[in-house]
Amino acid sequence: MGSKKYKIILVAGARPNFMKIAPLMHALKDHPDIESLLVHTGQHYDEKMSHSFFEQLNIPAPHINLEVGSASHAVQTALIMERFEAVCFQEQPDMVMVVGDVNSTAACSLVAAKLHIKIAHYEAGLRSRDRGMPEEINRLVTDAIADLFITTSRDADENLQAEGVAPAHIHMLGNLMIDSLVTHLEQTSRMELKLMDLNAQPIMDIWSDIKYGIMTFHRPSNVDDKATLGILVQEWIKVSEQLPLIFPIHPRTQSKLEQFGLMDDLLRSKNIYLTGPLSYLEFLKLMSHAALVITDSGGIQEETTYLKIPCLTVRPTTERPVTIWEGSNQLIKADEIFNKAIESLAKTSSDYTIPRYWDGSTASRIIKLLEDFSSASMG
Ligand code: UD1
Q1: Distance 162 CA to ligand 1 centre (A)
Q2: Coil, strand, or helix at residue 23?
Q3: Model pTM?
Q4: CATH number of 184-351
C-alpha cells in the first residue's frame, strides 16, 4: 500500500453541471495520488434531465445520490445540506469540488466550509450583477467561501480580485463545457436523429438540408410572467415564418405555457417543432448545424461562441460577457427577437473569435492544478 491518496468529492446536481463534471471524472479515473468520488445531489433526477447525460457523457454512476428532487429553493438547499453533511462526515474528504452556479453548488460549499474542508469552485468569478437571478446568489455565496478559484475567462479573474480574492488563488484554465463539446461533436456526425415533435410528427431531417434555428427557454424571469411569455410566443412565431425553429421545452416552460393558455398557439404554428428536453448528443447535433440559436441559458452562450453560431440571449445581463466581446452572443429584449434574428442571419463566422483556453484541454490543466495543490497540502 502506498501513502494515503488525496480525496476529492466532486458535486453534480443539475443538467448544466454534468458536461462540466464529465471531463474531470475521466481525467481523474485511476489517478495514482487523487481519489475522486462523485456525489449527485438529485436536484435534476429524471431520464431526460439527468440519466441520459450520464449515459452519453460516459460518466460513471454517482457513488452517492442524495435524491433531493424538486422543491422550493430553501427546502431544496436545506435538504442538500443536510444529506451532504452526512456524506462528508462519512467520507472525510480533503476537498469538495463544485461547478457552476446551481443550488447544489452553493449548498455543498456551505457544508464544506463549516467542516473546514477545502473548496474548489470551477466557473468561479462569473457575475451578472443581477441579484434577482438565483444563480447570481449561488455564485456570490460560493465564491465568498471557496479556497481555490478556477475561472473560464479574464473578466472572472478581475471580478474576484475586485472582491478581495488574492490573485494566487485564481486560476484561469479555460472551459470544461468546451472539453465535452470537442469530445462529442464528431460522434454526433455519425448519429441518426429520430425525433418526434409534440404533435407526434417526425421532425424531418431538417438539419441536413434546410436552414433552421434552435431555441431554449427556462429562466423564471422569462417564463414565469404571463405577459413576457406571451410576447416571446408571438416573436417565436414571427421568426418561424422566415426560419423554421426547433424548440426543446424545459419542464418549467411547458407547465407555464399550459398554465397561461399559450401552448395551443405554439402547437398550431407549423414551423415550430416542439419536443421535450433533448439528450446532450441530440441537442449538440441540432445546435451545431443551426443557423441561429435563441436562448436564455448560461452554457449555450458559451457553446455557440465556440461553434461561431449567432446566439440571441433574451436577458438583460449576462455573467459570461466574453461571449459578447469575443464570441457570437448578444443580449436582446423579448420584443426584439424577430428583428435581431433577421440581422444575425446576415453575419458570418469570421465576425467572431474563440476565447483563450476554450480548446478541449481544460480538464488536464485542472488536474495539474489539483495535483500541485494536493501535494502542497499533504506536505
Ligand atoms: C436549474 C438551475 C439553473 C439551470 C437549470 C437547467 C438553480 C437555482 N437553477 O433551474 O441554473 O440553468 O436548472 O435546467 O439551481 N424538473 C423535472 N425533472 C427534473 C428536474 C426538474 O421535471 O429532473 C422540473 C421540476 O419539477 C420543476 C422544473 O423542472 O418544475 C424546474 O426545475 P428546477 O431544477 O427547480 O429549476 P430549473 O428552473 O431547472
Answers
A1: 31
A2: helix
A3: 0.95
A4: 3.40.50.2000
